[in-house]
Specification:
This protein has about 625 residues and is of the alpha/beta class. The longest helix has 18 residues, at about 310-325. The structure holds calcium ion.
Length: about 625
C-alpha cells in the first residue's frame, strides 16, 4: 500500500518534528495477515512494516479487541503492535488506523475469522499413519504457466539437476489418485513457501516469505485445496517449517527491524554442525554459540530466536498455517540449530492451542543417546525438555542401511531398538528408509530388489510412524558420490511432465522390477491400514539368529487378542524348515497364521520354510 496522496502535504509539514526526516509514510505489510477469534491465547503481536510507519500511532475501535502496547524497534520502518483479542470478540474486519498528528495516514482492514473447532483426541499423526514425502518441484508439472514467474528470480531449467523443474502443487493434486492408491495416509511436502533465491531455490529451505506459497508452486489457496483433498480422502497433511534460518532473498534482509533480528558475526561464520554440543554436559558456551548462531549456509541467514519478537513471529507463523491450512502436523527442520528454549516455547504454545498436535523434529543424530535428548517425556539431567512429540529416527535409519545394505545380517535393527529405553516416546518416532537428504534407497541397497523389499517390510511393521520418499517404491535411482549435489537425488517423477518417455503413475509403463516393488509396498500399506496391532500395539523382538550369522530377525506386534509375527530372513540361504519353538511366549494361544504378502496360510506354527532374502508378515489367528 502507498501513502494516501491526500495527506502528503500534511506529512511534509510534519517533517520537522521528526529527527528522522520522515518524508513519506508507507504501509507495506502486516503479519500475520489475519487472525482468528476463539483462540486459547488472547494475545496477538502484529509486525507492521512500511517506510517510517513508526512515526504513526495505531488505533483500533472494535468490540473485544484492544491495543495493549506498541513497540518501536530500532528501525523506524517497523512497529510491533500487541493486541488483546478477548473471548467476546466476534469475527469481522478490524479497522487499524495509523494516526499521525491526529490525522489518519493509513488504515488496514484486519480480518478476524472464526477458529475452526478441530480437536485431536489422540496424537494427530500416529502409528496408524504412513507419510509420503514429496519434493514439489520434482513430482509433476500441473501448470506450465507458472514454471517461471515475474515475482521470482530463478527461472525454469529442467536440464539443470539443481534448477527449477516446474513441478507444482497442481501437479500433486492432479496425481493424487496415485498417492492415495499406493496406500499412504499422510503427505509431507518439502517447504513450498517462497524461495526467491538466484539458484538452488527448488529445495525450499531458503524461505523468503513465511506467509506466501512460492508462485512457481502455486498459491496459498492451492495448498489449502491440497490439504482439503487429503481430508476428503481420509488423509492428512504435515507441513515442513524452517525456523533456524531464512533465505538471503527474504524481504526483510535489506531492512531488518532489530540489530539482533539475525545472528550476525564480524565475518561470515558457519555453524559448527555439532548437534551434540547442545546436549553435551561439558560444552563450552562458544561451542554452543557456534552451533546455534553460526549460519547454515551463506545463503541462509540465521534467525535469532532469542529476540522475543522473533520468537513470537515464528510461533504465530506456525499457528497461522495450522489454522489457515488445517494442518495435521508439522515437521520442523534442523531442530537442534535454533535456540532450544525458544523452540520449547514454540511447541508448548502450539499444544496450548491444539492439544495432541503432531510435531516431528528433524534431528540428524547418529546415535540414540543424543537423539533422545530431543524427545518428549525424556528426563534430561540438565532439566531441558523439548516437549516435541516425535523425532526423526536417524539411528534406526542407519541401522537399516547396515543391515540391508552393507551386511547380510539383522543384528543392527535389534540393537538399535534395544536402546529405546532412552526415549520418552519411541513409538512416536518418525521412521524412514529414505528422504531428500540421503542417497536413494535403490543405490544404498546396491540396486538389490530383495533388500529394498526387506527394508520396506521392516519400516512398515516395526514401531514408529513410517515415512517413505516419493519414488523409492519405483526404484528411483540417485547415487550420491562425494561432490555431487542433492539435485540428482530429487528426481522428476517420470510421467509428471508432458512428453516424458514413460509414465510411472500408471502400471503399464513400469518395468517388471518396478511393478514388483511398487505392488509389494502397496500390498503392505493397504493391509497396514486395518492392522491395529501395528497402529497401537506393543513390540516384542528376539535376538537375531542363528548365532554367528544373525540373519533372521523375528518380532511381534501385538494388541489385546491380535498379533502379527514378522520374520525377516536377511540371509542368502533358503531354510526349508525353520523352527518357531524359540518364540513360544509370543505364539501362545495362536494356532495358525496367514502371510499378508503371499496369502499363504500356515496351518501350524511349528516350523516354516524361509526363502533367502524374504520377509514374512504373518497375521496370527487363535
Ligand atoms: Ca509448473
Amino acid at each position: 500500500m502507498k501513502a494516501t496522496r491526500f495527506f502528503l502535504p500534511i506529512l511534509l509539514l510534519a517533517v520537522n518534528f521528526f529527527k528522522g526526516n520522515a518524508q513519506e509514510i508507507e504501509l507495506n505489510r502486516i503479519e500475520p495477515p489475519n487472525w482468528w477469534t476463539g483462540m486459547q491465547v488472547e494475545k496477538l503481536q502484529l509486525l507492521v512494516y512500511g517506510k517510517n510507519i513508526s512515526h504513526t500511532q495505531p488505533v483500533i475501535q472494535y468490540e473485544g479487541v484492544t491495543i495493549k502496547s506498541v513497540t518501536q524497534p530500532e528501525n523506524e520502518n517497523y512497529l510491533f503492535v500487541d493486541l488483546l483479542i478477548s473471548t467476546s470478540a466476534k469475527p469481522g474486519k478490524i479497522k487499524i488506523a495509523f494516526i499521525k498528528e491526529d490525522k489518519e495516514v493509513h488504515n488496514y482492514l484486519y480480518e478476524l475469522k472464526p477458529k475452526s473447532n478441530r480437536e485431536f483426541n489422540e496424537l494427530s499423526i500416529n502409528g496408524a499413519d504412513v507419510m509420503y514425502l514429496i519434493t514439489p518441484d520434482r513430482f509433476a508439472n500441473g501448470d506450465t504457466a507458472n514454471d517461471a514467474t515475474e515475482d521470482t528470480i530463478e527461472k525454469h531449467d529442467r536440464d539443470n539437476p539443481d534448477g527449477r523443474h516446474g513441478g507444482d502443487l497442481k501437479g500433486i493434486i492432479d496425481h493424487f489418485e496415485y498417492i492415495k492408491d499406493l496406500g499412504v495416509t499422510t503427505l509431507w511436502l518439502n517447504p513450498f513457501l517462497e524461495n526467491d533465491q538466484p539458484k538452488y531455490s527448488y529445495h525450499g529451505y531458503g524461505i523468503s516469505d513465511f506467509y506466501k506459497t512460492d508462485s512457481r508452486l502455486g498459491t496459498n489457496a492451492d495448498f489449502l485445496a491440497l490439504t482439503q483433498l487429503c481430508h476428503k480422502n481420509g488423509m492428512k497433511m504435515i507441513m515442513d517449517q524452517v525456523f533456524n534460518h531464512c533465505g538471503s532473498g527474504h524481504w526483510w534482509m535489506n531492512d531488518l527491524p532489530f540489530n539482533d533480528w539475525l545472528n550476525q558475526w564480524e565475518s561470515y561464520t558457519n555453524s559448527s554442525f555439532t548437534n551434540i554440543s547442545i546436549s553435551d554436559p561439558y560444552s563450552s558456551q562458544s561451542d554452543i554459540d557456534l552451533h546455534t548462531k553460526g549460519w547454515f549456509d551463506k545463503n541462509l541467514p540465521d534467525l535469532n530466536q532469542q529476540n522475543p519478537f522473533m520468537e513470537t513471529y515464528l510461533i504465530q507463523n506456525s499457528i497461522w498455517w495450522i489454522e489457515y491450512a488445517q494442518l495435521d502436523g508439522i515437521r520442523m527442520d534442523t531442530y537442534p540449530y535454533p535456540d532450544k528454549d525458544a523452540m520449547a516455547h514454540w511447541v508448548q504454545r502450539i499444544f496450548q492451542e491444539y492439544p495432541n498436535f503432531y510435531i516431528v523434529a528433524e534431528t540428524s543424530e547418529l546415535n540414540t543417546a543424543s537423539l533422545s535428548y530431543w524427545n518428549s517425556g525424556k528426563r534430561n539431567k540438565d532439566g531441558y525438555e523439548s516437549h516435541v512429540n516425535s523425532v526423526s529416527d536417524y539411528p534406526l535409519y542407519y541401522a537399516t542401511l547396515k543391515a540391508f545394505g552393507e551386511q547380510n545380517q539383522a543384528y543392527w535393527l535389534y540393537e538399535s531398538l534395544a536402546y529405546d529405553f532412552l526415549y520418552g516416546t519411541p513409538f512416536n518416532n518418525k521412521i524412514f528408509n529414505g528422504n531428500h537428504d540421503v542417497q536413494r534407497l535403490y543405490n544404498h541397497l546396491n540396486e538389490d530388489i530383495d533388500k529394498i523389499k526387506l527394508s520396506m517390510a521392516f519400516v512398515l511393521t516395526t514401531r514408529g510412524i513410517p515415512q517413505i520418499y516419493y519414488g523409492d517404491e519405483l526404484l528411483f535411482d540417485g547415487p550420491k558420490p562425494p561432490g555431487t549435489t542433492d539435485g540428482v537425488l530429487r528426481k522428476d517423477f517420470p510421467g509428471g511432465w508432458e512428453g516424458d518417455e514413460r509414465n510411472l503413475f500408471t502400471a503399464k509403463d513400469r518395468t517388471d522390477e518396478e511393478k514388483e516393488v511398487h505392488d509389494y509396498v502397496q500390498r503392505i500399506l493397504k493391509w497396514r491400514k486395518t492392522a491395529e496391532e501395528i497402529h497401537k500395539g506393543k513390540l516384542k523382538h528376539y535376538k537375531p539368529g542363528p548365532s554367528g550369522k544373525e540373519t533372521i530377525y523375528v518380532y511381534f506386534r501385538y494388541l489385546d487378542d491380535r498379533s502379527t509375527m514378522v520374520i525377516i530372513n536377511n540371509g542368502s540361504d533358503d531354510i526349508p524348515s525353520f523352527s518357531l519353538s524359540h518364540y513360544g511366549e509370543s505364539l501362545e494361544g495362536y494356532s495358525l497364521g496367514t502371510d499378508i504378502i503371499s496369502g499363504k496360510v500356515y496351518p501350524t506354527l511349528k516350523t516354516i520354510a524361509l526363502k533367502a532374502n524374504t520377509a514374512y508378515i504373518i497375521e496370527l489367528e487363535h
